[in-house]
Write a structure and sequence with these properties.
470 residues; 11 strands; alpha/beta; Amidase_dom; Amidase signature (AS) enzymes; 13% strand; AS_sf; 17 helices
């Protein structure tokens, strides 16, 4: 069973299509692993074995009769519990939507389902996707599979933990302030945050209409390319999506680092990082250079201003979305999420408008600064995963300060709407993963996937899997 769950998304898809492994065998292997790990991780909100096995049997029967539903025929997957699936409960990690069954399916999920997948259940998340750690007062905290005392990252906490622990071959996530990239870094997976407008957000629970993006937690850059190829493109239900042809992302993963130029920021992203993160950054630079990339130092505009503007947009837009429930059901929020939402009501319209209007000039200044590079390399976070106890707001005196630290390097990317790919790049002496992010130009996910795939051909950090706790 473990040999099956160790396969990548593309690997299991090929094995099922070639009838070397049945969809039932793959699904049973995932369910067995979920059963063993769930008591330790709390990575799932709902586990649906009957639905999964029925879907697997249907996929096997179809394949036996000569029908292939698509590139992911019979592959069992689970996703963050904020992607609406018509007729299925979507809690959004909240008490308010504990029994919510939407009548529509999110576009991103629908496109993946159309490719032939089998539903395993739904993955844990921070309440309404508003938090970076994995704490959840309604469904219990999610845990890091490398050390269950530590955070898995958020808000796509279950997606990061489940992919790392080999409970699902991949998972959808969302990234508004780092919610795909932090779980990827803390849990040792590959994580792709897409450009705003690259993947439809229709039918995915909103948090911030100008910052929300859809992303993927996977084992490899190649797996992320496959999911992006399936989901990217225009959608009438989301007028912010980009029309026109979609790049060949799978072909991009066959490219190499040779001839590419990678920029290392001279400040901000390299300041106040812990020693092991600094060592991982240096080792990553060495690998890039050895494989054929040119690495240079670049100077970026003030990233603290970008981060502050991002927090303003998030606070105000989240408060606006939740205002009806804040009025009618305030006690159904956890105290932490309610406080974050109410904070957004305190901003003036002028402050919000200034943050919104500045995005264009800020992006123009950024693009001018990176004109000579194909991507930026930077840490995802100044540290490896902190503990759940140290980031428990209300339980630890310095928790808010710790949370500000872990979101420091992710928010500027959201404000500018840029794509970013996280790949595992090392481990601490205590065994916690360390990831780095490659930040690209708008809609240049193909370049990031090329970089990530070749980096992973030349390293083995992404192959490591955690051991089941005793």
């Amino acid at each position: 069973m473990s040999a099956i769950t160790d396969l990548t998304l593309t690997g299991i898809a090929d094995a099922i299509a070639g009838k070397r492994i049945s969809s039932r065998e793959a699904t049973e292997a995932c369910l067995a692993r979920i059963g063993a790990w769930q008591p330790h991780l709390n990575a799932f909100i709902a586990i649906e074995p009957e639905t999964a096995l029925a879907g697997a049997d249907a996929a096997d029967a179809a394949l036996a009769s000569g029908q292939n539903f698509g590139p992911l025929h019979g592959v069992p997957l689970a996703h963050k519990d904020m992607f609406y699936d018509a007729g299925h409960i979507s809690t959004c990690g909240s008490k308010i939507r504990r029994d919510f069954a939407p009548d529509t399916t999110s576009t991103a999920l629908a496109r993946i389902k159309t490719a032939g997948t089998v539903r395993l259940g739904t993955l844990h998340m921070v309440e309404f996707a508003y938090g970076p750690t994995g704490h959840n007062a309604h469904f219990g905290d999610c845990h890091n599979p490398w050390n269950v005392a530590h955070v898995p990252g958020g808000s796509s906490s279950g997606s990061g933990a489940a992919v790392a622990a080999r409970l699902t071959f991949a998972a959808l996530g969302s990234d508004t302030g780092g919610s795909v990239r932090m779980p990827a870094h803390f849990c040792g997976t590959t994580g792709l945050k897409t450009t705003v407008g690259r993947v439809s957000r229709a039918g995915a629970m909103p948090l911030s209409h100008s910052l929300d993006t859809i992303g993927f937690l996977t084992r490899t850059a190649e797996d992320a390319a496959l999911l992006l190829a399936l989901t990217a493109g225009a959608d009438d239900a989301d007028p912010t999506t980009l029309g026109g042809p979609v790049p060949d992302y799978m072909a991009a993963t066959r490219g190499t680092l040779a001839g590419l130029t990678i920029g290392i920021p001279s400040a901000f992203y390299v300041e106040d990082i812990d020693g092991e993160t600094a060592q991982a950054l240096d080792a990553t630079i060495a690998t890039l250079t050895r494989v054929g990339a040119k690495v240079i130092t670049i100077t970026l505009p003030d990233q603290m201003q970008l981060s502050a503007a991002s927090q303003t947009l998030l606070a105000v837009e989240a408060a606006a979305i939740h205002l009806p429930w804040l009025k009618d059901r305030p006690d159904d929020y956890s105290s932490l999420v309610r406080a974050r939402l109410e904070n957004g009501l305190a901003y003036s319209g002028v402050t919000y408008e200034q943050a919104l209007r500045w995005r264009g000039p800020a992006l123009q200044a950024h693009l001018a600064a990176v004109a000579g590079v194909d991507a930026i390399l930077a840490p995802v976070c100044p540290t490896p995963a902190p503990t759940l106890a140290d980031t428990d707001v209300g339980g630890a005196p310095d928790a808010e300060a710790a949370i500000q630290v872990i979101t420091r390097f992710t928010r500027p990317v959201n404000y500018l709407g840029l794509p970013s790919l996280v790949v595992p790049t090392g481990r601490t002496a205590s065994g916690l993963p360390i990831g780095m992010q490659f930040i690209g130009r708008p809609f240049a996910e193909d370049v990031l996937l090329r970089i990530g795939a070749d980096f992973q051909r030349n390293t083995d950090f992404h192959l490591a899997a955690p051991e089941l706790p005793a």
